[in-house]
């Protein structure tokens, strides 16, 4: 028994699953970031693509290459979906920057570059430290790192994505952008 290689079908299966998983990954990220209107619309397209792709594979299970193309499309789709979400840089990050010296111009520099900065003094293992808390859109994350690393190369930086934001300098801006997404 010889197995025929139907290249157009293999490419179609790969592409359909690639598109499905890329959409799935982006939709999941949108859901996690609070895009409550866009995520369901994307899911309608996603599930339509999924059903077509799955039907293609299930109707041709006698050829292991079809299953391999489906699996490869899945893996590549996950990677591309993550890449797309990273490029979109949706949402906000909270950065805590701990500086080894309290005598620094970094807070002023960050404010001059439109970053909201809350600073406080803290006690570390080796003495007094300056702690900066900075809330910024994710698309400004690399700029923030560059400014901090250039001004204070020994700074300790940790970032996370806040789930809830209330009060303070950013509330009006954050609320307005969230309402536009819904």
From TrEMBL:
Gene Ontology CC annotations of this record: plasma membrane
What InterPro entries does this protein's entry cite?
Answer: DUF2179, DUF5698, UPF0316
Q: Which CDD domains match?
A: YitT_C_like_1
What region holds the DUF2179 domain? Answer: 115-167
Q: Which UniProt keywords apply?
A: Cell membrane, Membrane, Transmembrane, Transmembrane helix
Domain DUF5698 stretches:
25-82
Please state where this protein is localized.
Cell membrane
Q: Membrane topology per the record?
A: Multi-pass membrane protein
Transmembrane parts of this sequence: 6-26, 38-58
Q: Which HAMAP family match?
A: UPF0316 (MF_01515)
| Annotated family | Belongs to the UPF0316 family.
State what protein this is by name: UPF0316 protein FC96_GL001305
């Amino acid at each position: 028994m010889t197995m025929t290689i139907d290249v157009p079908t293999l490419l179609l299966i790969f592409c359909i699953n690639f598109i499905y998983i890329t959409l799935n990954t982006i939709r999941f990220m949108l859901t996690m970031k609070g895009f409550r209107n866009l995520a369901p619309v994307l899911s309608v397209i996603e599930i339509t693509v999924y059903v077509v792709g799955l039907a293609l594979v299930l109707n041709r299970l006698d050829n292991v290459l079809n299953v391999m193309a489906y699996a490869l499309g899945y893996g590549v789709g996950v990677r591309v979906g993550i890449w797309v979400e990273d490029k979109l840089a949706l949402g906000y990050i909270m950065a805590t920057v701990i500086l080894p010296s309290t005598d620094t111009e970094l807070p002023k520099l960050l404010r001059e570059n439109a970053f909201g900065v809350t600073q406080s003094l803290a006690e570390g293992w080796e003495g007094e430290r300056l702690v900066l808390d900075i809330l910024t859109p994710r698309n400004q994350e690399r700029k923030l790192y560059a400014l901090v690393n250039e001004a204070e190369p020994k700074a300790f930086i940790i970032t996370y994505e806040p789930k809830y934001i209330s009060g303070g300098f950013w509330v009006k801006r954050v609320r307005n952008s969230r309402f536009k997404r819904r």
